[in-house]
């Protein structure tokens, strides 16, 4: 039992580490790819379509080779999930375009309380006071180190609301679909990735044209840009798989809270690799966020132990049925007279 707990904890840490490393890596690769001082590839939605196309290809090869089993999930649920996921991607891109960076960061921070409320409404899930306090600390810390100027308009506010709601629903749906159909994270991803890839590759260029004023057909592809596109797509496979894996193992709220560790890593690497400014305010915010994540992990573990104690059956006395069975057992059991052996002298 103890060894099973240790192996489960190791696999949890491995899944989370893969998500953090791949997410930070893909942000760094995309920054070099899309940065005006890099390769100026300003087609984020189409690039996401490339990501899901490569992920779908990996899933197809895995199923064909027998490394993963394909379980049945109704097509209407896959379509609904893909629509919500694509709305999340498009909404985030439009929110970043129409709003200031500060309001964009605030909208991302609001996903934690939105996910909590949605899980309470949809799954009747309740949170302890310690968990709520930890969430507040994390939100304050990330807000301090990321939020700067806050400017908003009506269109940008609507896009941010759509992005937050769709992203929260997507992350809750990942866990609920895995439990509902007893399907693994990679199997679910391999079913939804082709639908998302086809839809994003069809509509993505038009969304990018609205965002940047350029069609992808006008972009002059260089070997350097192609290299970073391939790196981005390769990291996206690990990022997508680990996201489904983490939400399946933890919860949407835990994924959001611990996911802000990526924000801390991105700010630190941006300061090291890209000469981004790192002020005392950023450092204090990052430290506050890390403390909040530690408190959150402790609070979740405390909540698990409390739930385990309440679910353990405690029997102080025998039931009438057990007493009857014991009496019958005594009456039915054959009695044997044991005669003392005689010793001969």
UniProtKB/TrEMBL annotation:
Q: According to its UniProt record, where is this protein located?
A: Membrane
Q: By its UniProt entry, which SUPFAM superfamilies does this protein fall under? A: Multidrug resistance efflux transporter EmrE
Q: Where is the Sugar phosphate transporter domain?
A: 26-297
Membrane topology recorded in Swiss-Prot or TrEMBL: Multi-pass membrane protein
Q: Which UniProt keywords apply?
A: Membrane, Transmembrane, Transmembrane helix
Stretches of the chain forming a coiled coil according to its record:
none
Primary localization:
membrane
Kindly state one GO CC term assigned in the UniProt record: membrane
The answer on whether this UniProt entry bears the keyword Transmembrane reads yes
Q: Where are the transmembrane segments?
A: 41-66, 78-96, 133-150, 223-241, 253-274, 280-299
Q: What's the name of the protein?
A: Sugar phosphate transporter domain-containing protein
What is the organism field in this record? Answer: Trapa natans
């Amino acid at each position: 039992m103890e060894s099973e707990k240790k192996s489960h904890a190791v696999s949890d840490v491995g899944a989370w580490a893969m998500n953090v490393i791949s997410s930070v890596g893909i942000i760094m690769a995309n920054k070099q790819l899309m940065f005006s001082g890099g390769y100026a590839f300003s087609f984020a939605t189409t690039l996401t379509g490339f990501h899901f196309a490569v992920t779908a290809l990996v899933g197809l090869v895995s199923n064909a080779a027998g490394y993963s089993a394909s379980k049945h999930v109704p097509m209407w649920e896959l379509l609904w999930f893909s629509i919500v996921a694509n709305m999340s991607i498009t909404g985030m891109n439009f929110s970043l375009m129409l709003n200031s960076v500060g309001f964009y960061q605030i909208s991302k921070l609001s996903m934690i309380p939105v996910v909590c409320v949605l899980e309470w409404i949809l799954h009747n899930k309740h949170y302890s006071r310690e968990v709520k306090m930890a969430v507040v600390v994390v939100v304050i810390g990330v807000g301090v180190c990321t939020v700067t100027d806050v400017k908003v308009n009506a269109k940008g506010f609507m896009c941010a609301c759509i992005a937050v709601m769709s992203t929260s629903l997507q992350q809750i749906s990942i866990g609920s679909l895995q439990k509902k159909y007893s399907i693994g994270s990679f199997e679910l991803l391999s079913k939804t990735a082709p639908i998302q890839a086809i839809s994003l590759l069809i509509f993505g260029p038009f969304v990018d044209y609205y965002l940047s004023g350029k069609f992808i057909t006008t972009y002059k592809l260089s070997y350097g840009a192609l290299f970073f596109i391939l790196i981005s797509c390769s990291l996206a496979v690990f990022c997508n798989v680990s996201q489904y894996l983490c939400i399946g193992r933890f919860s949407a709220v835990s994924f959001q809270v611990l996911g802000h560790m990526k924000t801390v890593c991105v700010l630190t690497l941006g300061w090291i690799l890209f000469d981004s400014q790192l002020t005392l305010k950023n450092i204090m915010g990052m430290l506050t966020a890390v403390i909040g994540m530690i408190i959150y992990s402790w609070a979740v573990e405390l909540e698990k132990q409390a739930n385990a104690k309440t679910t353990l059956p405690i029997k102080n006395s025998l039931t009438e049925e057990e007493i009857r069975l014991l009496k019958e057992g005594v009456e039915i059991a054959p009695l044997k007279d044991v005669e003392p052996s005689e010793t001969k002298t």
